[in-house]
Write a structure and sequence with these properties.
174 residues, Hemagglutinin Ectodomain, Chain B, 3-stranded antiparallel beta sheet, 3-stranded mixed beta sheet, elongated
């Protein structure tokens, strides 16, 4: 058997070209441009991924900074509570009560600086979006469904409820 050394034919565009699926020759310059575009795409994708990671890290840093700022505002209130607990035996109950009342006022001022307000509801109509009824009584001198007692204060920021107030509601059907 005679073996011939077969050589592949040279494509029509020369030795440095490939053929496209349609059989046309693809010049080297087009292959280089494609490689450059692919490289540009990969770099852009990597840059975007790095940007996304930096943005997430920055958001985390901002969140921690806000938490730290709030904690630094709370620390003086804690200091005052510790001082109140450290009072000597010569301190009267009335003085202790006044001190605790001042500390509570300090806490409320801190909340106010953060636009958090106590939900003032006593005597107002029950609102299931702002209140949680935990009991009811019948008081003829008050309107039906009026809030008679606040068991636990509610708090809100603007229209958003942070915590619903736990209340006792007037119920004339009892």
């Amino acid at each position: 058997m005679n073996q011939k050394h077969q050589q592949s034919p040279v494509p029509p565009g020369g030795p440095n070209t490939e053929t496209s699926p349609s059989g046309d020759a693809v010049p080297d310059s087009l292959k280089e441009e494609l490689a450059e575009q692919k490289d540009r795409y990969l770099r852009l994708a990597a840059d975007f991924d790095n940007f996304r990671k930096r943005t997430a890290q920055e958001a985390e840093r901002r969140s921690l900074a806000k938490e730290d700022a709030l904690i630094n505002e709370i620390l003086p209130v804690i200091d005052n509570l510790e001082r109140a607990l450290a009072v000597g035996p010569d301190t009267s109950f009335v003085q202790l009560l006044e001190g605790v009342s001042m500390i509570l006022q300090q806490f409320r001022q801190l909340l106010y600086r953060h636009d958090i307000e106590v939900d003032v509801s006593l005597g107002k109509p029950f609102d299931p979006l702002r209140h949680e009824a935990i009991g009811s009584r019948n008081v003829a001198s008050q309107p039906d469904h009026a809030i008679l007692e606040i068991v636990q204060q509610g708090y809100h920021r603007g229209d958003g409820i942070l915590r619903a107030a736990k209340v006792i509601v007037n119920d004339h059907s009892q």
